[in-house]
Automatic annotation (TrEMBL):
PANTHER family: GLUCOSYL/GLUCURONOSYL TRANSFERASES, OS04G0326201 PROTEIN. Transmembrane segments: none annotated. One of its GO terms (molecular function) is quercetin 7-O-glucosyltransferase activity. It comes from Oryza sativa subsp. indica (Rice). This is Uncharacterized protein. The keyword Transferase applies. It holds the Pfam family UDPGT.
């Protein structure tokens, strides 16, 4: 799948803005489909619950930049319990974000997070198989 293959819910091409040869910025896209793409190495997120579940289910580690509500709790689980995230401080600047992104993409912590994220992806696959916990617990 290429960036141009991502469509909105109505099947029409989503609004896009080309960014001088360095990428594409879209008004909306199906995050779960983007996370499945091989080009995605890490997700920079605010730690809302949907992304907290979608990212490890896709095998993608996370950088969490928190704001409010349940985000602190979600981040704690992602970091300390699941091992799939790093937290960016609320007042971080460009250099700090760049360094953390580099660590998440190429550093030892990033390798550990990718390994844990892949384990969570495999767990998500197993529990959704016919006869798996999601199926039997609904009966």
């Amino acid at each position: 799948m290429s960036v141009n293959d991502i469509y909105d819910m109505r099947g029409k091409a989503a609004c896009k803005i080309c960014v001088e040869g360095s990428g594409v910025l879209r008004a909306w896209c199906p995050q779960d489909k983007v996370l499945e793409h091989d080009a995605v190495g890490v997700l920079l997120m605010h730690s809302g619950w949907n992304s907290t579940l979608e990212s490890p289910a896709s095998g993608v580690p996370m950088l969490s930049w928190l704001f409010f509500a349940e985000q602190q709790t979600n981040c704690r689980y992602k970091q300390t319990e699941w091992g799939v995230a790093m937290e960016i401080g609320g007042d971080s600047r460009r250099g700090e974000v760049a360094a953390m992104t580099l660590e998440a993409m190429e550093g030892e912590k990033g390798r550990e997070m990718r390994q844990h994220a892949e384990e969570w992806k495999q767990k998500a696959v197993r529990v959704t198989l016919p006869g798996g916990p999601w199926d039997t617990n609904l009966d």
